[in-house]
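Section 5: illustrative case.
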């Protein structure tokens, strides 16, 4: 649960304690229920987004918008392998291939020459 949400819950509990308007006998059960609702809201927010962006990192792995990782054993782009939808969240994939920074590439070439 986020710190901000936890603080708001504690404030609400403290302000209504003893008024009969709002009381929870078992605070830990309530916290678990709120955390479950927060997770559902995050999942719904992910579904609202139209695409799942798969970003290739320098090791050839893809980091997905839905907080997963994926690797193709033979490397290369996703399209020739038939990947159109995320295997984790089901949304259409937008691929962002890894791009080597030009400055880094030039420095490596200079190191090889010396």
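Designed sequence:
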């Amino acid at each position: 649960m986020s710190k901000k949400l936890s603080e708001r819950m504690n404030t609400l509990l403290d302000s209504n304690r003893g008024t009969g308007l709002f009381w929870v006998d078992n605070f830990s059960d309530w916290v678990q229920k709120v955390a479950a609702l927060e997770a559902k809201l995050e999942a719904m927010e992910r579904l609202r987004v139209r695409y799942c962006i798969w970003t290739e990192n320098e090791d050839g792995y893809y980091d997905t918008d839905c907080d997963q990782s994926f690797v193709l054993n033979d490397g290369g782009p996703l399209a020739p392998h038939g990947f159109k939808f995320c295997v984790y969240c089901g949304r259409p994939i937008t691929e962002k291939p890894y791009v080597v920074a030009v400055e880094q590439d030039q420095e490596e070439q200079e190191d090889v020459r010396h």
